[in-house]
Amino acid sequence: MDTEFWLQRWRDGQIGFHQARVMPLLQKHWPSLALPAGSRVLVPLAGKSLDIIWLASQGHRVLAVELSAVAVAQFFTENRLTPTSRDSSLGRHHVAGNIEVICGDIFNLDAATLAGCTGVYDRAALVALPPAMRPRYVAEVYGRLPERCRGLLLTIDYPQHEMDGPPFAVSQAEVGTLYGERWTLQSLDERDILAQEPKFVARGLTRMSTSVYRLEHRA
């Protein structure tokens, strides 16, 4: 992951990946996890996603992680939240109610922090990483989540040679390779989305689909 690439995108306001609504697939499939209220839910590479607000409204304690201080500031300002802030070795922590956003590198999260997360919602992280970084991400982040942790993983797939990422194409086979050893995977949804994504049609894509997986960390 090119850290400076993402920081510059936020500084320049080039955030076409941000959606000004809660992800409908999150609302549809999150109940399948049956996570109790009060569960701590990790949201990696969160940007200023409204999904954070929705997860908090379900009674969860949300731990979001985002590199860009610009994104973090916009998240709290646009949602009219006034956080308290402190620094740690993990980054700068901003807390408002049951939402905590760490402005820092997802790879800096320690085992103790991740062990407290019994839920995970990954909509934008895995697909933001180039292929060479994905095994490290799954090993160092997902590998430190506790047994029985449950979550949703959203991916995008398309002919990778037709477009440079991010977002990168992640196939069902790769998801199985990355997670299959330690996680139980269930495919919940798969749909063609190219017709709803004219900007990707303009970039030359001939096929684009999104998939939703239910994950559970095996004991």
What would you say this structure looks like, in words?
Helix 3 links the parallel strand 1 (40-43) and strand 2 (61-66). The protein has helices spanning 3-12, 24-29, 51-57, 69-78, 111-115, 134-140, 172-179, 198-202; strands spanning 40-43, 61-66, 84-88, 91-96, 99-103, 119-122, 150-157, 183-192, 209-217. The protein has a 9-stranded mixed β-sheet with strand order 3-4-5-2-1-6-7-9-8, with helices on both faces. The mean pLDDT is 94. It is α/β, with parallel strands linked by helices and 219 residues long. The protein is globular, with a radius of gyration of 17 Å. The longest helix is centred in the N-terminal third of the chain and has 10 residues, at 3-12. It contains 8 helices and 9 strands. The two termini are 30 Å apart.
Which class do the helix and strand fractions yield?
alpha/beta
**What's the shape?**
globular
Number of strands: 9
Oligomerization status of the protein chains: single chain
String of helices and strands: HHEHEHEEEHEHEHEHE
Quick gist of this model?
The chain is of the alpha/beta class. The protein contains 8 helices and 9 strands.
What distinguishing features does this structure have?
9 strands, 26% strand, 219 residues, 26% helix, alpha/beta, nine-stranded mixed beta sheet
